Amino acid sequence: MDLFGGYNPSLSRLTVVSQKENLYHFPIVCNQCENAYCLNVCPAGAITRDTSGIVVIHKDKCIACGLCIEYCPIRVVVRDPETGKAFKCELCRGTPLCVEACPTGALELVSKHTPKGKIDE
Amino acid sequence: MNEAYTNNLLMIDLSRKTHEIIATSESFIADFIGGKGFGAKLLYDGVSPGTNPLGEDNLLMFLTGPLTGTMAPAMRGCVVTKSPLTGIFLDSYFGGSLAAEIKYAGYDGIIIKGCSEKPSYIWIRDRHVEIRDARSLWGVDTLLANRLIKNELNDQTIKIATIGQAGENKILFSLICCEYNRQAGRGGAGAVMGSKNLKAIAIKGNRLVRVHDPANFKAACREAAQELEKSPDVAALRLAGTASAVEFANEAGLLPHKNYQYGTFAKASKIADKGQSKHLWLGSNACMGCPIRCSKIGAVRTGIYKGIVTDIIEYESAALMGSNLDIHDIRAVAHLVKLCDLYGMDSMSTGTVIGFAMEACEKGLIKSPDGINLRFGSIQGAEYLIHAIANLRSGLGQILSKGVKQAADHIGYKAADIALHTKGLESPAWGPRGVSGMALALMTADRGGCHQRGFTVSYELSGAWNNHPLDPLSPEGKAQMVAELQNYSAGTDTLVKCDFGSFGISKETYARLLNAACGTQYSPDIFQNTGERIWNLVRMFNLRQGMDPAEDTLPRRFVEEPLTDGPGKGHRISKKDMAYMKQEYYKTRGWDENGVPLDKTLKQLRIDYVKSD
């Protein structure tokens, strides 16, 4: 809603995959992969990792080729229906709108310590 | 204006293999809002008297409301058509996420007319509309058809409405499966789809649904969510869904047992939330965007039925396929309901039909088929009948596939005395002896024997409605309550609301959601007023289709046979009480003594164009 000005869950930056007649549901969010294929395949250098470890798409550089969408293993890079450019979860600069909107508290932003001792969000 | 609408209806003609987009007019939206309102007007205009419900001239419509597909909590979609079971108006509601997908594809509704030459399904991807070959899908059950279509189109996120073998065979109480475990269940919409040779509709949409005033709309959504949190009814539904109603109905003496011969069931707890949570449930599910999550998903893990995934056995199914048939093994009930879901057959009507057959057999009106025990309590007998009906196997299966009203006519003698229906729609699991307002609601519901058009039970048992004291057993003072509940329900079914959402969300908040979404300035009375308009238009539709107002009545059992157990013991709804309530109701509605809306009533409601027809 806040990102495109309207509602459609297929354009959301996180997805819920349901299986076995809705017996199971798996929320799927961008892992901000350490070896990020979306970043690796981008021919335009439009995808970079920022200082806090978040994989970010620079809209001005994106050429809408769709390679990042094709090679994301968990299909969380999505195409903007109007511009054709790619977008993904960038944790909304630290205050995710999905967490804010969730009526039940099912979503929260947590920090975890990786084995290397650095902090990921 | 009207941002929350797409302002487009998709009309598909299966006979000509064409489709067109029809723009909605301002006055159509202003008078009817959406959902049920759109359906009532389109059906009145598009289906002339005498139209064969299973012929190519009947319309089958999937409709959304202005709030469908937004973040407004607890919204659904509805199917509207002329029912082959009752011959009158049918609106049947489905949750899940199919309705939202219709909006995302760019339509406020899909209208299907005509009849395909060979089995087909419709594939809608935004503006791409394609009628595809479904010969390889014909004869498969609802869930397999769903899976095969998703595989064929190579997209697991498509939303699909499909019929099973029951719809193909035009069983008059077959349903439309709106994946998963959500159905447009009552009144035979699946048979209409089958008669059009239409196996399924698959939809995927990329359009955004916008609202007029996002900030105000979000605030209204928050308010609605808070109201839901405050409601004790919602809290009960979140915990145990509608299964919690089994013990409530049993204590009130309203739980059907043995084809409604009794109102209590000694083993009620086994089929209620207690038995279900122990044997079936694993987790909670919600329809899209709904914080109530009344659905309890699970599986039968042990015993002879093991291995099936099952949703909560809703109150109606638990009662009509359980206590009504004297079956208390909840895993067996889950198995029987799942069979109905796979065939695509309304488990409510099926339960009533089987109960009718079991009593008819016990009374010697029909014979058990060879090797089958058709007595109450026989799981084998119930299972046999489900297969026989869905596949039109054996003479008995064919007779029962028409519903209890026609089956009783066919069997003759005293069969009509034990056929539980109003206007041909099998009675829901709320026996009305002991709550006379519910009796009036069943007598006058627009689609026949339905409890959802005005559910008076909780008001009557609590002894008050709108601060007026109420005696549940007396016929006095029920008409106003029933009419207002019917109007409000019809009015909010334009949005299209879920009944459970309305347990918490106030009319003020519904109006705020609507206004913020559409840029309108309606007062909360809009729902009562629009609902009254719809109710009268549907009445005129039904009368024009040949409905006799004498059918505003109850099944004989509720009238002639006093309850033998429970708090309502000794009570029945006498002919005198029915006549009294009916006249009071007609008067309250501005109808004449024969139940026909007066010209001045139609004029006040701005639908006087219907009177000259």
Key phrases:
heterodimer; A: 121 residues; alpha+beta; Alpha-Beta Plaits; two-stranded antiparallel sheet; 3 helices; globular; B: 613 residues; Aldehyde Ferredoxin Oxidoreductase,  A, domain 1; Aldehyde Ferredoxin Oxidoreductase Protein, subunit A, domain 2; Aldehyde Ferredoxin Oxidoreductase Protein, subunit A, domain 3; six-stranded mixed sheet; 25 helices
Question: Number of helix segments of chain A?
Answer: 3
Q: How far apart are the termini of chain A? A: 23 Å
**Helix residue percentage of chain A:** 10-25%
* Structural class by sheet pairing and helices of chain A: alpha+beta
The CATH homologous superfamily of the largest domain in chain B corresponds to Aldehyde ferredoxin oxidoreductase, N-terminal domain
Largest binding interface between chains:
A-B, 19 and 32 residues
- For the largest sheet of chain B, list the strands in their spatial order: 2-1-6-3-4-5
- Sheet with the most strands, sense and barrel status of chain A: 2 strands, antiparallel
Number of domains of chain A: 1
CATH topology of the largest domain in chain B: Aldehyde Ferredoxin Oxidoreductase,  A, domain 1
Structural class of chain B: alpha+beta
User: What Rg of chain B do the Cα atoms give?
Assistant: 22 Å
* Principal-axes shape call of chain A: globular
What low-confidence regions of chain B span 5 or more consecutive residues with pLDDT below 50?
Answer: none
Strand content of chain B: 5-15%
- Number of domain modules of chain B: 3
